[in-house]
Amino acid sequence: MSTSPSAIRSSKARSVPPFPEAARELITKLSPRVTGLERLQHQAAELIRLPEAVRGGLEAIMHFLLEFMLEQEASDLDLGGRAANGYVWYRIHGAKRPHPEVGRYDPDEANLLILALTTDRIRERLYERLSVDFSYELVYQGRRRRFRATAYLEDGYLALNMRALPEQVRPLDSLGFHPNIVRHLMFEYVRDGLTLVTGVTGSGKSTTLDAIIEATNQLSEAHVIILGAPVEYVHTSKRCLIRHREVGRDVHSFKEGTIQALRQDPDIIVIGEMRDPDTIMAALEVTDSGHKVFSTLHTSSAVESIDRIIAECPVEEQERVRHRLADVLRVVISQKLCPRIGGGRVLAKEVLLVTPSVRAAIKNNNTAEIYQMIWEGGSLGMITMEQDLFRLYRARQITWETAMNFANNKRRLQQLLQQAEG
């Protein structure tokens, strides 16, 4: 599978920096009997001993690959491991393809390229967990650009994903939320409770959270603590004091960062992801104490998000968690990025506002009723994923096929079409 030249944006004519010979010799000297983590650790130790110019040469290749990524407006870069087949892969407007024009790197060469981006602390976490998240910066066209990186082992070799982070935060009013929902998101109007932004990886959750925080930064006087793994967009304190704590660098875990935040006089706590029962319980605890909390989940609908939180907790705790969640939950936003007609992607979203009826449904374990409440809650700013997909289809931003592919409830989407045609 290859990308046609017409699909590639024109970029400055320059060649890929050469792979340093000293680094290549390092690879050839290592016995093939040394494999997996041991091989990786040996390569890292030898790489550190090489002259700075060699490590700089490896980093120059990575900078070239990242600059190409920015020029092509790619969201993600993937490199390394056997599965990449030596290619560098880029995701452009949702499609991930190999790009042979930026060079090919065998698994050992990719190991060294990835290691060149890491610090001692990052490598320690990698050796311990066999996967590590970190952030990376470079200067591109005179401006600092940030990337979220994940390095992990695949079939005994290092693999890497890097995601380009936005330079600027999107204005909250550009995301299309109903004014009543915006009021509930803003600290100025609702000063407590839990708001969830959910969706699969790459669905724009961080973009939405950053838009909410930046809008708050311009409107309210508050103390915001952001916990990230890694920290993505770095806000400049304006009316808000905004602190960024990166898991692995500034704090050991989301759970510890959440609990520690209680002693740091926050008004708003942003928990990058509720990954486990301990973090979920910590998030409910700090929300219970009267703080405004935002977090994310990898779920595709509002109802699934509620059910997931409860199911993640021990069975003996689920009834208590159900009641606690019903009391503190304020808004659930579930997102998808859909291919737009003419290129690019467009945001489709489901929005749940927790009303007394929704709260009662959660407490009574009747979450199946909530979808209909969202369907009928348009005057309050609620919308189902199917209603929003149908809106995008009627606005000729997406095709009917795309709408059906991204719908959680295809029958309901078909109903909307039949009603419109009838």
Describe the structure.
By secondary structure, this protein is of the alpha/beta class. 40% of the residues lie in helices and 22% in strands. The protein contains 16 helices and 13 strands. It has helices at residues 21-29, 36-49, 52-71, 107-115, 120-129, 179-185, 205-219, 254-261, 277-288, 302-312, 318-328, 356-363, 370-375, 385-394, 400-406, 410-421; strands at 76-80, 89-92, 95-98, 131-140, 143-154, 157-164, 193-198, 223-228, 241-246, 268-271, 292-297, 329-339, 345-353. The strands form 2 sheets. A 7-stranded mixed sheet has the order 9-8-10-11-7-12-13, with helices on both faces. It is globular and about 70 Å long. It starts with 20 loop residues before the first helix and ends with a helix.
Neighbour order of strands in the largest sheet = 9-8-10-11-7-12-13
Distance between the termini: 44 Å
Give the total of beta strands: 13
Tell me the overall shape. Answer: globular
Mean pLDDT: 94
Please report which band the strand proportion falls in: under 5%, 5-15%, 15-25%, 25-35%, 35-45% or over 45%: 15-25%
Binned, the helix content reads 40-55%
Alpha-carbon Rg, integer: 23 Å
Low-confidence stretches: 1-8
Describe this protein with a few key phrases.
single chain, 422 residues, alpha/beta, seven-stranded mixed beta sheet, 16 helices, disordered N terminus
List the helices and strands and how they pair.
Blueprint: H1 21-29, H2 36-49, H3 52-71, E1 76-80, E2 89-92, E3 95-98, H4 107-115, H5 120-129, E4 131-140, E5 143-154, E6 157-164, H6 179-185, E7 193-198, H7 205-219, E8 223-228, E9 241-246, H8 254-261, E10 268-271, H9 277-288, E11 292-297, H10 302-312, H11 318-328, E12 329-339, E13 345-353, H12 356-363, H13 370-375, H14 385-394, H15 400-406, H16 410-421
Parallel strand pairs: 7-11, 7-12, 8-9, 8-10, 10-11
Antiparallel strand pairs: 1-2, 1-6, 2-3, 4-5, 5-6, 12-13
Helix pairs in contact: 8-9, 9-11, 10-11, 11-12, 14-15, 14-16
